């Protein structure tokens, strides 16, 4: 039977199934009724699984999108090319800006995915570091933005998730 440890909504959605199940158990049931119940329960469990998976994927995608869009905004509004040499002050500003938005992207993941672990935050950090490493090896010019993404921004996305989970008492 589907887990009852989920959200309150899931619990209330399953009450009619539980009533029907106990009704079948308490009376003489046919094989047809048992097959119908099994199919209904399997559909409910499968739908919950699919919805949970979509929430997890959506959380990671939203976190990464927040990070990428904020980076694009910084470079477009400042006029600085990401693979060109920049002043030290702009690099420091970019580091601070990136830390803030990678932290926020880490907060978004467990908030949307409704998870109690950091697995998805590790996946987000891995995705951020992987794209930065790919860009590091494929692009010409200065690589300071990729190094920041690999060594600072990716870990801060995990720290953001850790902060959120500790704040809501799930970690």
Major sheet description: none
Structural class: mainly alpha
How confident is the prediction overall: mean pLDDT?
A: 84
Number of domains: 1
Helix percentage: over 70%
Task: List segments where confidence is low: pLDDT < 50 over at least 5 consecutive residues.
Answer: 1-5
Care to count the β-strands? 0
Gap from first CA to last CA: 27 Å
| Coarse morphology | elongated
Given the structure, what is the number of helices? 5
Q: Can you walk through the features of this model?
A:
The protein is mostly helical. The protein has one domain (about 10-165). It is built from five helices and no strands. The longest helix is centred in the first third of the chain and has 48 residues, at about 30-80. The chain is elongated, with a radius of gyration of 23 Å. Mean pLDDT is about 85; it is low at about 1-5.
């Amino acid at each position: 039977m589907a887990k009852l440890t989920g959200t309150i909504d899931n619990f209330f959605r399953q009450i009619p199934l539980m009533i029907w199940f106990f009704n079948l158990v308490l009376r003489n049931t046919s094989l047809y009724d048992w097959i119908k119940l099994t199919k209904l329960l399997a559909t409910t469990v499968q739908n919950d699984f699919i919805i949970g998976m979509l929430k997890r994927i959506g959380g990671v995608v939203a976190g990464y999108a927040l990070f990428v869009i904020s980076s694009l905004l910084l470079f477009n509004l400042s006029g600085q090319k990401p693979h060109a040499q920049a002043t030290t002050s702009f690099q420091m500003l970019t580091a601070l800006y990136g830390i803030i938005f990678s932290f926020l992207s880490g907060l978004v993941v467990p908030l949307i995915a409704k998870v109690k672990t950091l697995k998805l935050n590790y996946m987000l950090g891995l995705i951020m570091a992987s794209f930065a490493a790919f860009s590091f090896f494929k692009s010409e010019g200065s690589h300071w933005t990729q190094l920041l993404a690999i060594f600072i921004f990716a870990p801060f996305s995990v720290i953001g998730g850790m902060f959120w989970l500790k704040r809501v008492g799930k970690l």
